[in-house]
Please model this.
Amino acid sequence: MSTFHPQVMIHPLAVVEEGAFLAPGCRIGPFAVIGPEVRLAEGVEVKSHAVITGDTHIGADSTVFSFAVVGEVPQDLKFAGEHTALRIGERVRIREHVTVNTGTAGGGGVTRIGDDCLLMAGCHVAHDAQIGARVVVVNCAAVAGHCVIGDDAIIGGLAGIHQFVRIGRGAIIGALAMVAHDVIPYGLVQGPRGALEGLNLVGLKRRGAARADITALNAAFESLRAGEGPFRQRAEALSASASPLVREVAAFILGESERQFLTPE
Model:
């Protein structure tokens, strides 16, 4: 049976199916649909005409805006109806017409979105994507299946992130870019066919990165761009840096990936 706390507010024109769990402070607007496996934590608001379905858990104080569809099955021809899930963190804002799919058996079975993310109107997060905390996905951008997006990354409007691509922490992807290769932490990607043109200096400064770390990252970027030897060898040379941010970039490049890298231009 469904579980409703006395403090839950459900509009009489909403549909909340048997089995759903709604914690105290949840508010469900008119014509919203809540599926039987959905669990909403304290203070979640679901506005009118939004649909939340599948094995979907949404963390406290999150908001799902009108006409979003959250927790539907993957857009993957290999999906055969297996039980998969979607896990969304706290204070996440899912704006109008956003679509977020559950995982697939071949991709681990769970799509994840971290705390304090903002998914702007019309964007899409596909099956098995793993999105960190404080990520912004701007209007009509698309994150394909199996992508990994690090904390504090920004995906610009109408950008497309190819399946299996990793976007490092603090990176920024410009509007309209098509990104088919991994992006280093703090990287700045621009252009119709995304090119790694620099560092996300604005984001680093906003988060209070030390001047010494920013200087070290600039030097590391130049080393990756114009240093001697293969790209991976240049990254290995950065592993001994005194800067933790440079070491993070090196570890990202040396880690396992399904894709090649966008190399600095």
In short: Residues 118 and 136 are 5 Å apart (CA to CA). The chain has two domains: 3-146, 208-254. The domain at 3-146 is CATH 2.160.10.10 (UDP N-Acetylglucosamine Acyltransferase; domain 1).
